[in-house]
Amino acid sequence: MTSNPLVSIVITNYNYDKFLDRAIDSALNQTYQNIEVIVVDDGSQDKSRKIITSYGNKIIPILKENGGQPSCYNEGFLGSQGEIICFLDSDDIFLPTKVAELVRVFESFAEVTWCFHSIQLITEKGELLDVVVTPNYISQQCDFRGRIKMGKIPPALPPSSGLSFRRSLLEKILPMPTTKLISASDYYIKFMAVALGKGFTLSENLAHQCIHDNNAATLRKDRQHIKAREYLLTGKWIKQEFPQFKKFANKLFAVGIMLDNNAKNNSYENHEIVQDYLKNISIYEKININTIIQYFLIIGGIKSILKNVFNY
């Protein structure tokens, strides 16, 4: 990495005009100066594009037709030049020292290819909520590659606004498959990042995630079928693009089936994804997925008994 590396902040937006300028300002007002701010608008129908235009040459706009957040990652990365890439959802905020902290980590540890940090949740008015994403994070180097290879899910990873990567790593991951079936999902990028390289977790809360009525999934119990779809599609895409991680892909797919069953939403789209996946895998893999599901059911049953009977 060169000294004083260029950092690309890729903001993804869809119909979030009431939050967008706040997100852009937080990106522009970083204490670390060598940055470029790229705003990818995914076919918004509100005042988002007017807001984007008002920033002039302070930002790099990418205006595209609606295609879902994965397509925004692809386009934003394609339009970036930075050695370090970080993503920011347009309803979230970066704290002023975030980029400086990321650069410090990447410059200090040559083998680190990704850096994730915890996130503080806030209300629309900016009030802090008593919830922190990944509160048990410790500032340390991490290597989950062996865990992924064995088909095990890594410890909790933060949402989009807590993710950053070396360009060399994202070049192996993007472009990623896309679909309009999910409006927002970062699972593919962060899971493949930890599968392909060593990383670093920061305990500091360097971003605020806004909780509001239109959140895709965070704290939304009424959208479990959408969360299930994220797992189903992520498993499908990983198996398709990185067959060496098929054990992990099948684990994610099994989790997706479990979540979809628990949602009791009878989602036609989810059913189609499941049927398409199952008809293209071996009998052994089907047995493995069923075994994983049964295991989760047993563990879930045991936890329920402990909670209800013993108040454990």
UniProtKB/TrEMBL annotation:
Lineage top rank: taxon: Bacteria
One example GO MF annotation: hexosyltransferase activity
One Pfam family cited in the UniProt record for this chain: Glycos_transf_2
Domain Glycosyltransferase 2-like: 8-113
Name of this chain's protein: Glycosyltransferase family 2 protein
